[in-house]
Write a structure and sequence with these properties.
This protein has helices at residues 3-33, 39-69, 91-107, 109-119, 121-137, 139-145, 147-161, 164-175, 181-209, 213-233, 246-256, 259-262, 270-274, 277-308, 312-342, 348-371, 376-401, 406-430, 439-463, 470-473, 497-502; strands at residues 71-75, 81-85, 480-481, 488-490, 493-495. It is mainly α. Mean pLDDT is 74; it is low at 20-33, 259-264, 401-408 and 476-505.
């Protein structure tokens, strides 16, 4: 072969390479506009609506119970028209009905991750939400049949929803490139706040115009429609998706690594983790925040009814305001932390203490202020500030999970943080003793939340650390993604590309 022919051949290869590159760039440019062609973004969008349904199905009873127990015109056999509630429940019974969901929710926190490993996170996620949606459709007839059956079906709903958070991490470990994992997970989880903000007002409107059963029928059908779409569209991994492009598949595989799919047996340093101060700082922060968050999520509509005499159509709208603030603050909290760190204003540990302890102390103050508010406007403003600042705690807790093997930490903190939900029944027995509670009785509820916020601030300030713990680095486990779907522990130590790319927090 002559030198000229070799040169011509090299030119042809160079031209073919150039044309191929141009075509790939053109396709990539086109896909930035057609986001639905990026299958990982489709998964993230459907996961967002999945968590929207998770919280809509969770909070619907909080608004419905107000309509179920408020007096309505009832005609007696003798023709007399009287005002009596459809369900003449005591406050203890209402407390049990409202908190029953979380008894089941507590049980399946850790089994959810195990089931995801056995049958696939995408399937477990769909089954959890689909089964809850189906049971929601049966809630009205079961409520009319027996209060015990209503409580039982709510417990079973909690069992199915308890798997949703653990198993979605198995989905991200396969679908999310390392540098996008934090963004995709955060976007998906923000659906829970959207579900709370949107569902509460809609529940009020449905109760007002269709009657309280309409709440369960509408959200139950919505959940089943979503389940069908998710089941058809989302596959266990990108390798099993027939519609993914070769370029996207290669990008995910190269970024994610093969360990994300294959997985290995993980050996955790249990003794070191159980005695680690930073671990229990995370757990205590999760517990404290959940106490106040779920107290308001569950009882706020009833509080508005008892203290400020709001009708059912109004309680949902006002109850949603604090969670709207939460959704807004969520969008800026992470950027604020990143900015403080990049400017070198303070260390990682001090930033976390500032966000968490500052939020806890503010929540302590504003919860007490809400307890003594004499107008509904003042009360809603104080509660909005208190709940909105809770996002600062959630944001920092997520970044803490990114720096530790969170299979244990996230699972433990979720279980411990679910205990406040069980305590709500005890709370209802102690505080909500009378059929209709006074402002003084409701103050005890707010005082308890404030005290727990304060304890959380003290514990977190003393034990918090943003440094990677020695037992994380020295852990010689096989490579495996942790349950928050945002980091990977390897035999060489700790590797978190998502953290490095998106934030140094």
């Amino acid at each position: 072969m002559t030198e000229d022919s070799v040169a011509d051949d090299m030119k042809r290869q160079a031209a073919m390479f150039y044309n191929t590159t141009q075509r790939e760039q053109s396709k990539d440019h086109q896909m930035t506009w057609c986001f639905w062609r990026r299958r990982r973004l489709v998964v993230a969008l459907l996961a967002f609506f999945g968590f929207f349904n998770v919280y809509a199905l969770r909070v619907n009873l909080s608004v419905a119970v107000v309509a179920m127990t408020e007096p309505v015109e009832t005609k007696l056999e003798n023709g007399t028209v009287v005002m009596i509630p459809e369900f003449d429940w005591s406050s203890q019974t209402k407390g049990l009905v409202l908190s029953s969901f979380f008894y089941g929710y507590l049980v399946t926190q850790l089994p959810g991750g195990w089931l995801a490993a056995k049958i696939g996170g995408n399937r477990v996620f769909a089954i959890g939400i689909g089964a809850t949606s189906l049971l929601t459709l049966f809630t009205p007839p079961l409520a009319h049949t027996s209060t015990a059956l209503l409580i039982a079906v709510r417990v079973i709903e909690g069992l199915f929803e308890g798997v949703t958070y653990p198993c979605i991490h198995a989905v991200w470990s396969r679908w999310a490139p390392s540098e996008e994992r934090a963004r995709l997970a955060t976007f998906a989880f923000s659906g829970s706040y959207a579900g709370t903000v949107v569902s509460m007002p809609i529940c009020s409107l449905l109760a007002h115009y269709t009657g309280w059963p309409g709440i369960f029928y509408v959200f139950g059908i919505m959940g089943l429609v979503w389940t069908t779409i998710w089941w058809i569209v989302v596959k266990e991994s990108p390798e099993k998706d027939p519609h993914i492009t070769p370029a996207e598949l290669k990008y995910i595989q190269d970024s994610r690594g093969t360990q994300a799919v294959e997985g290995s047996k993980i050996r955790h340093p249990w003794a070191a983790m159980l005695t680690s101060g930073p671990v229990w700082a995370i757990v205590m922060a999760h517990f404290s925040e959940n106490w106040g968050f779920y107290t308001l999520l569950t009882f706020l509509p009833t509080f508005m009814k008892d203290v400020f005499h709001f009708e059912t159509s109004q309680t949902g709208w006002l109850s949603a305001v604090p969670y709207l603030a939460m959704a807004i603050v969520l969008q800026v909290a992470g950027h604020m932390a990143d900015w403080l760190l990049k400017r070198g204003v303070m260390s990682r540990t001090n930033i976390r203490k500032l966000f968490n302890c500052g939020a806890f102390l503010s929540q302590t103050i504003f919860m007490v202020a809400a307890a003594y508010a004499t107008s509904v406007v003042g009360c809603v403003v104080f509660l909005t500030i208190a709940v909105g600042l809770g996002v600062l705690i959630s944001t920092m807790r997520t970044w803490c999970h990114l720096q530790m093997p969170a299979i244990f930490i996230l699972g433990t903190s979720k279980i411990v943080a679910t205990f406040p939900l069980i305590c709500m029944f005890v709370l209802s027995l102690i505080v909500l003793f009378y059929r209709k509670c006074t402002a003084e009785q409701w103050r005890i509820v707010f005082f308890m939340s404030s005290a727990i916020y304060l304890i959380g601030a003290v514990v977190y300030f003393i034990f918090c650390s943003a440094e990677i713990q020695p037992w994380v680095i020295d852990n010689e486990s096989d490579a495996s993604f942790d349950t928050d779907g945002a980091s990977v522990t390897t035999a060489r130590g700790y590797d978190n590309k998502a953290l490095e790319q998106n934030s140094e927090m």
